[in-house]
Amino acid sequence: MGLLDRWIRKTPARAARSTPQVRAPDSPAAAPDHHESWYVSSDDKDRFTVPHGEMPPFHLIGYRAGSGEAVLRLCEDSTGLLIGPSDTRLPKTGVYVSQLRGEAYHQDGCKAGDFSPGRPVRLVREPDNPHDPFAVAVYDQSGQHQAAYVNKQKARMLSKLLDAGEPVQAVSIRGTAAGRPCDQVAILAARPPVLRHVLSRRPSGLPKPAHLR
Question: In what order do the strands lie in the sheet with 70-76?
Answer without folding.
Answer: 58-64, 70-76, 82-83
